[in-house]
Amino acid sequence: MTELAPAPQDAPVSSADVLVLRRLPGAKLESPAIVRHYVTCAVVLPGRTALEALAASLRGDERPEPGAIEVLGADLARMPRVPRPGSAPTLGWVPQDGGLLSNLNVWENIALPVTYHWPRVAGELPSLVNSIMERLGLDAREICGRRPVDLSVLERRLVSFVRAVAMVPELLVLDATLDDLEGEVFDRAKRMFEVFAHALPFRHLVHLGTRHMDHARFGEPAPIIVEVQ
Amino acid sequence: MFTRTYIETVPGPGRLDRRGAFARTWRWLRSLALPPVRESFLRQVYFTAMQGSIGILFRGAVVGTIIIAYMIRVLNADVAVTNKILLIFVFREVGPLFAAVLVILRSGSAVTSEIALMGLSGELRTLRRLGIRVSEYLILPRIVGIPFATVALTFYFQCVTLFGGFVLAPLVIEATFAQLVNEFFATVSLWDVGYSVVKSLVFGVIIALASCWYGLRLSSMDITAIPKAVTRAITLSVAYVMIFNALFAYFVFGVLLFGLIRAEI
Fold first, then answer.
1. Which residues of chain A does B16 touch, with a Cβ-Cβ cutoff of 8 Å?
2. What is the ipTM of this complex?
């Protein structure tokens, strides 16, 4: 059983390297985890690995019990995927396989949620997507007409990241997005963190990994890395 | 990177909408104005009506000429009987039915397999995670688009078949093309046009509902579920279309089973 060190009360908040959850009294992690700053975790269900349940909840595969997990002051069980009037902060999600629709090309995949929810800002999307892709090392003109089946593993994840960022989430979850990547490909994928910090400096990012990742791999500033065993 | 307008467009806290079923249905229909839903609707109409029209052209010409010529010959028809055959048989009954069968075989099967595949590959889950309602993005364009396309195909079939009949009939009976055309347009009424339009619309709705229903409800999460879903969708679409066809004729014109049963009108 691993216990987390209590969070320092005066530690500075930085959007790219902290996941803020409310600590439940007496909460303990039941699996090994690497944490750096003042993250607190909640035990979701008795006997379950907190991080596994958290990961499943953040992915949307499971609904935690109301009140079991609180994220950014909101109940995770009620956290919407899209901002709606009267709703809590929103959750963005980048899956490991990209989660792109196979019958749409890259541009249509990126534009779909934005034009669906906020058609008024659709006109600004091309320049936004262009600048994000440039920072990620993608050629927007070359890639936007391609179908997901023609993309590499990294390209699918990066496109999915662009789509998620365009939705302006309060909390963006990278679901094992850096797994199975090595060398130069891994370095390119890591750019997602700096792009997110630049594009949405007052929002939060978390990476759910299935491998041990330490600061030496990520460099500074490093995101909080929550391992799912 | 993000402009102020972009960030501020994201709706902030406000009153939740709690209106009733009618308002929710109206809002559901209004989502056709959303760009991706509208695009999906136009794509569906194009696939069903435009691409389906090529098949109608040849098949309609064959049906129109061969069957009509045969019936005129067998019944030893004159202008009036020929006109009745064209109006009742082709315009009212065969036209909408033929278009419906074509739509079932082409679009119905395609819609079912597309939605089923999206379910199997996790794309439906992706849509839900993006906050996109499957009922708005996938179902609504089909429920509105397929009926429109069916009406268009019906009209196209009627035109091709009637034209074929008008061209061929003078070779079999003593009548000119102009006589037949004038007689037909003197006989056909708005009632007949409305009858075929309403039938086509309802056929289209039946086909769209059946295709989407079985596409969304797979018997299992493996690849064999797709052909099963397609088969069920096609079979039930044909059955419901035939049932509605019979009942509608009974209620409108008072005849069932081609005149074997008559209604008290």
1. 84-86
2. 0.74
Chain A residues inside the 8 Å CB shell of B126: 95, 99-101
Q: Which stretches within chain A are classed as H helix?
A: 50-59, 106-117, 125-136, 140-143, 153-166, 183-199, 215-218
> What would the pLDDT profile of B190-199 be if each residue is shown by its tens digit?
888 888 999 9
Round to whole Å and give the CA distance between B94 and B81: 17
Structure tokens at B21: 């079923």
Question: What is the count of residue pairs from A and B with beta carbons less than 8 Å apart?
Answer: 87
Separation between Cα atoms, residue A217 and residue A204, nearest integer Å: 20
* Tens digit of each residue's pLDDT (9 = 90 or more) over B109-134: 999 999 999 999 889 888 887 888 88
DSSP annotation string for A111-167: HHHHHHH-GGGGGGHHHHHHHHHHHHT--HHHHTTS-GGGS-HHHHHHHHHHHHHHT
